[in-house]
Amino acid sequence: MRTSRWFAASLVALASLLVPPGCKGGDDTKSSSGAASAATPESPLEFKPGQGRKTTLESLDPSRIVSIGGALTETVFALGHGGRVVAVDRTSIYPAEVSKLPNVGLYRAVNPEGVAAQKPTLVIATEATGPPGIFDQLKEAGLDVLVVDETATAQAAASRIKALGKALGKAAEGDTLASAVTTRIDAVKGRIKGVKAIPKVLFIYARGHKTLLVAGEDTPAASVIALAGGKSAVAGVKGFKPLTAESVVSAAPEVILVPARSIASLKGVEGVLALPGVDKTPAGKNKKVVGIDDLALLGFGPRLGEAVDTLAKALHPEAAAK
């Protein structure tokens, strides 16, 4: 089952709390922005030429790029086009140099005038970009827009990287980058093949103690957990739900997975262990908390293999040396 529906929902939930978009959930019809899904059987990209322009997907001009979506921005930089990015959205937090670029706001509330003011030759955006009608507004402003599907699977991540590389004139780089992701994940699969114990993992998102959520099925976090040889501790729960002491205790996780920024907002691992109910779980008693960079963990971009590898080593230390 594709996780695109929950991707858009999870991004909205998380981005509204000022965290980088993770990967998505969604169906094949409409995205949260009201635009048609970018995904097709042939490509994860949908090209929308600006009004009055004759640009095609094969003749894009990537000399001035506005990138909307943290994982997309990371991918553009990894492909070697970072120097052509003239503006980003608030969820674009990696690599570090993006902090010096003009910001067009939170991806789900983009101001088309603000984007146009950057005089881009190309806008690259996740299909979850909003508000509704934003893509039509950008087209009417004469801007070429490349809408990107962000399905949260390893196969989709590799396909997305390759397609972006080809569209941006970096086909060889895209193929190499995608291959690195799949090769690392395949290595993890080979390493943990045959392991007997499948640890229960609870993903917790936090922004201090006032915002606490757990991730269930059909979320980017659940996809990474499965790739790393774990299983969700909250079986039957879909999407993001409020964390309660009762839910944590009943979940009885053996490992707690937390984005790095969430750990920082809680003042470290000890803050995670002090969350309601955590001390009564196997993970809490054994202080088994794993922190991974937010965008690497949830973005399903170039560092997906790294995130899966890191988590797999924590879940299956007995297989780490294989």
Write structural notes for this entry.
By secondary structure, the protein is an alpha/beta fold. It folds into 2 domains: 4-183, Nitrogenase molybdenum iron protein domain (Rossmann fold, 3-Layer(aba) Sandwich), CATH 3.40.50; 195-319, Rossmann fold. The protein contains 13 helices and 11 strands. The strands form 2 sheets. Strands 6, 7, 8, 9, 10 and 11 form a 6-stranded mixed β-sheet that branches. Strands 1-5-4-2-3 form a 5-stranded mixed β-sheet, sandwiched between helices. Helix 4 links the parallel strand 4 and strand 5. Helix 5 (154-167) runs antiparallel to helix 6. The longest helix has 22 residues, at 171-192. It is globular and about 60 Å long.
Features:
single chain, alpha/beta, Rossmann fold, six-stranded mixed β-sheet, five-stranded mixed β-sheet
Structural class: alpha/beta
**Share of helix among residues?**
25-40%
- The CATH class assignment of the largest domain is Alpha Beta
Order of helices and strands: HEEHEHEHEHHEEHEEHEHHHEHH
Largest sheet: 6 strands, mixed
Helix segment count?
Answer: 13
Shape: globular
CATH topology description of the largest domain: Rossmann fold
| Rg of Cα set | 19 Å
The name of the CATH superfamily of the largest domain reads Nitrogenase molybdenum iron protein domain
Topology at a glance:
Layout: H1 4-15, E1 45-48, E2 65-68, H2 70-81, E3 85-88, H3 112-116, E4 122-126, H4 134-140, E5 145-148, H5 154-167, H6 171-192, E6 200-206, E7 212-215, H7 220-227, E8 231-232, E9 240-242, H8 245-251, E10 255-259, H9 260-265, H10 269-273, H11 282-285, E11 289-292, H12 294-298, H13 304-315
Helix pairs in contact: 5-6, 6-13
